[in-house]
C-alpha cells in the first residue's frame, strides 16, 4: 500500500488522494515539458479538485528538512574548485563532513534537473551523518547558482550546455575523491537527472568509482556500459514509464558486460519517491531504499 506523505502538508492532500493523471502531468512539468501555468491549467481540467492536487505537489522544503545544518554531528560549508572544460571553468558545491578527524569514505550527491535545492543539501547532510564525506555540487553555479526556487532552477539548467554540465559533475567527483578529508574511496548517488549522471559517471570514471546508487535515472548508453567497473545499486519507481522503458536494454547490457548490479523496484511509487518535500514521497520506500544505499556504500567504501 502506498504510504501517504507527512501529515504536516499544508494543503492536507495526501498521495492517496491525488489522481494519477495529475501525477503524470507533474512528471511532465518536472521534466520541463510543461510550464507551471500549463501544468496547473491541465490539472484543473483533468479532474475535480485537480488544481488543489497540483498545488499540493509543489515542494515544501522547510517542512521536509530532516537534518539541520547546525547538527553537531557534522560540519557543512560551500566550497569552490576548478572545473576545466565545464560551463565556466569553476564549480561550487556543498561539502559536508562527519564530526571527527577523518579521513572518510566519500559520496557525491547529484541533484535533479533544477540545481542544488534544499532537499539535495539535506540528503548530503544525511550522508555525512551516516559517516561519509559528502559533496553536493551545484550544476547551476556557472549560471549564478540555484536561484531559490525550482521553476527558475529548471529553466537555468535547461539553458546550460549538457556535455559541459556532465563534465562539471566529473570534475566534482574527482575533486571529492582527492579531497584531504577523503580516504580516496568514492561512491555516488543521484536523483532523476542526477540518477542518470550517476550511471554516466560509472562509464567515465572506471576504477576511480567504487559504487553507484542511481535513483530513477536515465540509463547509460549501451555502448559505454562495458566501461563500468563499479557495482551499481539501482532504484526504480513502479509508476515511471519514461525511465522504466530504458530498463530492459540497460540491464541486458550490464549483464552482458559482467557489471555487478542489484535492481529494486518499489511497488506503488511515483518517480521522485525519495524526495520528501512533495506528495510523491513514499516514506516506506524512501527509507528502505536509503537503508539499502547506506549499507551498499559501507560495504563498498569501507
What features would you describe in this structure?
The protein has 302 residues and is α/β, with parallel strands linked by helices. It folds into two domains: 44 residues; 240 residues, 3-Layer(aba) Sandwich (Rossmann fold), CATH 3.40.50. 39% of the residues lie in helices and 22% in strands. The protein is built from eleven helices and eight strands. It has an eight-stranded mixed β-sheet, with helices on both faces. Helix 2 packs across helix 3 and helix 7 packs across helix 8. The longest helix has 19 residues.
Describe, in short, the structure shown.
The chain is of the alpha/beta class and 302 residues long.
Radius of gyration: 18 Å
Number of strands: 8
Approximate strand percentage = 15-25%
User: DSSP helix count?
Assistant: 11
Low-confidence parts: 1-11
Span from first to last CA? 35 Å
Helix-and-strand structural type? alpha/beta
List the helices and strands in order: HHHHEEEHEHHEHEEHHEH
The main pleated sheet reads as: 8 strands, mixed
Mean pLDDT score, rounded?
Answer: 90
Residues in helices, as a percent range: 25-40%
Tell me the CATH superfamily of the largest domain. Answer: Alpha/Beta hydrolase fold, catalytic domain
CATH architecture descriptor name of the largest domain: 3-Layer(aba) Sandwich
Bulk shape: globular
In spatial order, strands of the major sheet run 1-2-4-3-5-6-7-8
| Tally of distinct domains | 2
What fold name goes in the CATH topology slot of the largest domain?
Answer: Rossmann fold
Query: Quick one: CATH class of the largest domain?
Result: Alpha Beta
Amino acid at each position: 500500500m502506498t504510504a501517504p506523505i507527512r501529515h504536516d502538508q499544508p494543503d492536507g492532500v495526501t498521495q492517496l488522494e491525488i489522481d494519477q493523471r495529475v501525477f503524470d502531468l507533474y512528471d511532465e512539468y518536472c521534466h520541463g515539458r510543461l510550464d507551471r501555468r500549463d501544468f496547473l491549467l491541465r490539472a484543473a481540467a483533468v479532474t475535480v479538485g485537480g488544481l488543489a492536487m497540483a498545488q499540493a505537489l509543489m515542494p515544501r522544503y522547510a517542512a521536509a528538512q530532516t537534518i539541520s545544518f547546525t547538527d553537531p554531528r557534522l560540519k557543512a560549508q560551500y566550497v569552490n574548485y576548478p572545473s576545466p572544460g565545464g560551463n565556466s571553468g569553476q564549480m561550487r558545491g556543498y561539502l559536508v563532513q562527519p564530526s571527527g578527524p577523518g579521513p572518510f569514505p566519500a559520496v557525491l550527491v547529484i541533484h535533479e534537473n533544477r540545481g542544488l535545492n534544499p532537499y539535495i543539501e539535506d540528503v548530503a547532510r544525511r550522508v555525512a551523518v551516516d559517516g561519509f564525506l559528502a559533496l553536493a555540487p551545484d550544476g547551476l553555479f556557472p549560471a549564478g547558482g540555484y536561484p531559490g526556487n525550482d521553476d527558475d532552477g529548471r529553466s537555468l539548467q535547461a539553458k546550460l550546455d549538457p556535455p559541459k554540465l556532465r563534465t562539471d559533475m566529473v570534475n566534482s567527483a574527482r575533486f571529492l575523491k582527492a579531497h584531504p578529508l577523503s580516504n580516496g574511496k568514492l561512491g555516488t548517488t543521484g536523483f532523476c537527472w542526477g540518477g542518470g549522471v550517476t550511471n554516466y559517471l560509472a562509464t567515465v570514471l572506471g576504477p576511480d568509482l567504487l559504487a553507484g546508487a542511481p535513483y530513477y535515472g536515465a540509463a547509460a548508453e549501451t555502448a559505454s556500459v562495458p566501461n563500468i567497473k563499479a557495482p551499481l545499486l539501482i532504484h526504480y519507481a513502479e509508476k515511471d514509464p519514461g525511465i522504466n522503458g530504458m530498463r530492459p536494454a540497460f540491464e541486458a547490457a550490464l549483464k552482458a558486460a559482467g557489471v555487478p548490479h542489484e535492481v529494486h523496484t518499489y511497488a506503488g511509487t511515483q518517480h521522485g519517491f525519495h524526495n520528501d518535500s512533495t506528495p510523491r514521497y513514499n516514506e516506506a520506500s524512501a527509507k528502505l531504499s536509503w537503508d539499502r544505499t547506506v549499507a551498499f556504500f559501507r560495504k563498498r567504501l569501507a
